[in-house]
Fold these 4 entries.
Entry 1:
Amino acid sequence: MSGQTNDFDVIIVGGGLVGASLACALGSLPEAESQRIAVIESFALQSAQQPSFDDRTVALADASRQIFSGLGLWQGIETLGVAPIHKIHISDRGHIGISHLDRQSVRREALGYVATSRVLGQALQARLQTLTNISLLCPASVTDVEFSHASASLKIVHENETKQLRAGLVIAADGGNSLIRQQAEVKTLQHHYGQSALIANVRVDRPHAQVAYERFTATGPMALLPTIGTEGDTQRFALVWTEQPAQIERVLGLSDVDFLAELQQRFGPRPGQFIQVGRRDVYPLMMIHAREHVRPRLAFIGNAAHTLHPVAGQGFNLGLRDVAVLAQVIVDAWRGQRDIGSMAVLRDYARWRRRDHLQTMATTDSLVRLFSSSFPPIQLARNLGLLALDMLPGLKKVITHQAMGYVGKLPRLARGLPL
Ligand SMILES: Cc1cc2nc3c(=O)[nH]c(=O)nc-3n(C[C@H](O)[C@H](O)[C@H](O)COP(=O)(O)OP(=O)(O)OC[C@H]3O[C@@H](n4cnc5c(N)ncnc54)[C@H](O)[C@@H]3O)c2cc1C
């Protein structure tokens, strides 16, 4: 496809967390120097409105740290601000079930890391701007896309003009409401949990000691992630509180004092005394799974392929593993002079990702359903499960490895190898 104006080898639609990560992976490769790659993103670089790079806190699995390290991005992210997670305390409110995951059991420096999407966005965008072989078309939005056997054509609105582009491969990284997915008429499996997530930063009266808390309640799961606040403040957690939308609206409207009192009542004394809460934001939650992840000239990554409930903090981690695998499949095809938009190549990506997608989605979905149930036999089973987990170190190690993102056959980046 190279050589003609408005013709690209690869067009990535969506320059959010996942699309920008893929552009950084492909754009840094010597093989990409002869390729034309574009990223189309609705929001301008560094726009405060960029929805993917907002103030929500993201728990990064250890495999994600490894992938970012392989892309040469981790050091920059660390400098901008990450907090390690040394322990995860899991409990079921009002019941005896308690379990702990500990970095010592897997002999790692940390089980995972906590950063804001804004910090990740800053590191990704800074790198993107240094990659001369990537055309950044932003702010620009795709409005139409059509696929033929040989190429894809996209209509975009850029600088108040409608333009027509052609690509050998379109990568849809345009999020949960993917326009590309709708236009390609790819069917989805969807589930509305009847829950929203409220997020906020909260302070406690003592250091968090790098412990994260996952608390299941009858009305929805809650999480506290240790963060590093300004001037190294180690008493700050990022809170994710999920519940029915009407309840979340009520909690959103509480005064700070009442909000902290209700939070304390739900979490109990374990994390410390809650003394301060920052701005509160709300996100609607649902599960979306695209039934196909590749078509000729088309591949889906990140939330466009799978949108998860944030209970286990896996959505972006799963998307970053899509990036690591798709980048490897593409670069291997370039090296072997194969057509990267052909189904022969794209099927390798879809097959490879299948197990991780299904396993991560099933685990996340069952955690929400199982732990939101007030049906006594299910309550008993889940508490026995938590207690058993604490008594079976072998099982716990397997679960900890999964939570750290080490699932199935690992791509080179997740093994600490260059692409
Ligand atoms: C409350 C909450 C907490 C979370 N916590 C965690 C966590 O702890 N760990 C974790 O791993 N994940 C977490 N997630 C999930 C994570 O935020 C998402 O998985 C991640 O943002 C997905 O990134 P994405 O790039 O695929 O999609 P998005 O972030 O939705 O980005 C899509 C991008 O595409 C652009 N776009 C859309 N349409 C077009 C178009 N037509 N043309 C051009 N551009 C377009 C958008 O502007 C946007 O920049 C959480 C989510 C929520 C809601």
Entry 2:
Amino acid sequence: MEKYKNMTLKSMKSIVYIAAIILFCAYGCEVADKETMVSSSFESGSIGAVTKTGNTEWEFSLADDNDNHELPDRWRSWWYVRMDNVDTREPLVIHLKNRGWPYYYVPVYSYDQETWYRFDENEVTQPAEYELKMEKQFTQSTVWIARFYPYTYSDLTDYLDTLPDNSYVTVETPATTQQDNPMYFVTLTDPASTDEDKQRIWMHARSHPAETGPSFLLEGLIDYLVSGTPEAQQILSKFIFTLVPMHNIDGVIAGNYRSTPKSENLEVMWYFDSEDPRELTENAPVEVTALHDMILELNDEGPEFTVALNLHASNSEPDIRPFFYPHFGTEDQGYTETEASLWKKQLRFIDALGIHYGEDMLEPAPDEGGGSFASKSYPESWFWHMFQDEVMAMTVETTYGRAGYGPDWITPDDLRGLGKALAPALRDYADSSITFEEHAFRARQNTIRSGLTYPALYPPATKDEMKE
Ligand SMILES: [Zn+2]
């Protein structure tokens, strides 16, 4: 009996052991057998060389836009990959190289391209100035990883489909890109109020395709304007918003950072004859001509534009908050009355936005904006030559890092909050009965953000990515 019992126990142990192996292999061996795959062949996907350097260790090298090695190093920032058959039993290590910018950041990842998560700061280190090392054990075998929250052309069309079918919002596609993709123009206003009492507001985003922050910002603005609240209704009765949420669509689809599939940087291609700024020269790309023509058409139709915002995102050190490129300066600094008037309007707008977004959430304006933009071919250069100080045209730069939310890293909802704040800020900006404490934000310049844990290689020498 004793012997029989022992044998049974022994047999049972063997059976459990064998069963365990079968169960283990049904799950683990299969995963281990399949080769991990890395791909960027999907909308907005991008990566250069991919090398497997260990069992679960990889080296990713960033690509130039269109693999065009003649483009500046600093145009290498965006990357977005899909990994399949990832071993979930041990950490995956990714060495990211060939970066164009030295700033530390934490990338994002998703298991379904819908819900995105930031890596933890302790999962991302900076072994060398232009490198990042990620080490993370994923819980699912398919994962998408990106430099920042992606926002594709499909994401835009899906979002526009969610807008209410009413007379306050109109979505049109009056132009197409070089690759024949429809360009969306979104108009928001209260059609029951007479146009004569309204001002036009212009905004366009994604001239630089990978700068996705402004897409979330515009979602926040649009959601707010169509929310039906009395405040939103009042704003729609006073303004007509014309928004171009995605300018460089072909570049977005291609997974480029700054340029079209022909490596054109649309931001600096508002080519015009300063003698006659109504006309762009014939070497301006169709994407630029489409915006230019629409602005003139609507302005001629009336009411006229008073504000034009050019939305971007800047590679900056992680704690730089959203900021602006105001132009010129005061008459005391040697600027003409008209130049100083534009400068003053730009600061007034920054102050108004600070009040609605949060007084510590924006970078203070510089002491002087300078006039070099006027001799270049930015959108604001054209606006200046066309409308002088009648249109407060300015670039808004969102940022990718903690952006004022430290120790947390900025999320799409935070960016939507910035968009939501734009609406009452524009209302107050346009209301001449409201006065702001002049240059209030300058007083807070150089505010030191507390509790930072920069990697040892920090800080880099350059402050922000410049507009070009
Ligand atoms: Zn940009």
Entry 3:
Amino acid sequence: MQVNQKSIPHFRRLIPLWQKMGLPLRPREPVPSVLARLLSGRPAKLLMLGVTPDYAGFGDDLTALDWSPEMVAEIWPGDTDKRRAVLGDWRDMPFEAESFDAAIGDNAMTMLAWPDDVDAVLAEVRRVVKPDGIAVFRWFLAPDSPATDTELKALALSLRDKASDIMRWRFVMDAVHEAGEPTVPVRAAWRKYSRLFPDFGELARANDWDAAELAELDIYRESTAQFTFPTLAQMQAAAGRHFSSIELVPSGDYPLAEFAPFVILGR
Ligand SMILES: C[S@@+](CC[C@H](N)C(=O)[O-])C[C@H]1O[C@@H](n2cnc3c(N)ncnc32)[C@H](O)[C@@H]1O
């Protein structure tokens, strides 16, 4: 399967929203603090998948790898002598073997088509991280069974003063069950919440969402992006092809955190 190039216009549309974006999609506190604890004690030549600004201060030396010049220009806080963004593909990294003490990534695996691209990236991470190093990814995993419509509706109507991202992301994660595979088009989520809420007015009233917030729900209608959410067992099988140690640590207490553990991989 081809890597998810279709996500590129999707991210372009999200760039103006990045500053206000919060958890669960952007790793605000407490997520960076939990990650810092997981990495502590390691000599810190770090590789980051993506240009996550919230992690830009990590490590003694940080290399952020992303294939999008626009994301580097708009999201990355800029290079210094301790950090730099490099343009390139996670599936074919422009680095020598064993160049890094650790690799990190926030919600990066979701961007990759299942199973080939996830496999290719895990193989590359194993290659470029030193044998005693680790990789720590906040990785969204689908629950083993679908949510009921009642559960999804209850979540969607409980988001007063919270962002519609939470609802969008929960619905797209749920779509893996209908699709029967981990990689799903975000449009499937839009179809489902449009069916459950034919008039977004109910959401606006329950959550006090303004027109801008409701407009974000329509990003998924026009998007051709696909995202990937393996179940725990599927993730363990994929990671287990490259790493012998797979550990899960909760990433915090925030909406949807139960689906987004830190997955720590080691040889
Ligand atoms: C790390 S992810 C998720 C966003 C994350 N939660 C954050 O706040 O940074 C998004 C990034 O992945 C990049 N990306 C997706 N697939 C890629 C690939 N195969 N190689 C390099 N970059 C990729 C996109 O360009 C985008 O900048």
Entry 4:
Amino acid sequence: MRVWIEAVAGLIFPAARPPRPWPRLERPFCERCAEPFPRPRPESFVCANCGKRKWSLTRLRATYLEKGSVREAILAFKYRRQFHLRPWLGRWLEDGFRQHYAAEHWDALIPVPLHPDRRRKRGFNQSAEIARWLGQRVGLTVVEALRRVKPTVPQARLSRAERLRNLRGSLALVGGFDPQGKRLVICDDVFTTGATADACARILLREGAKEVVALTVARR
Ligand SMILES: [Zn+2]
């Protein structure tokens, strides 16, 4: 069904192109959470927040900042079902992968899961869609290894503390996937505090993953 809609959208809007994505997430940024730093810094650094915080993820990276055309494209894809944007978002995710992670070995891409109720309502999981694009391009398997076991309130308007409370006990590993010894990349469209991706990483590490990092199209 989705493929069909995508094909029709491609026929109706053959020239539909999102404007040039901008701005890119560039160094200097925090080596852990990629928080950009306004002034040039010669050495790599960890921001004050990450200095205090216990992360399960070793790194979070994004291709762009969540602004302008990038933010528009993400919202249009996710909430207005503009399926013709999938290859563009996929390409933008791929750019970030090539920039930040391509030099290392990874075992699989793990999309951030949606609760089944929300997935049914939306009709697709945007994270899985763009992860599949990336997986095909860079030759990595996409494993939907995690599931939401309780519905969470949308995170967008919550503080960090509320996000963590909201996420507690909300994720579980799907049977049949063994993270033991694996190096995994969590994929999503956007991250704000990174709390969701980190909750995913915590479960995968608890089940024996060797390292878990995150990659999104954009960073808030
Ligand atoms: Zn940081």
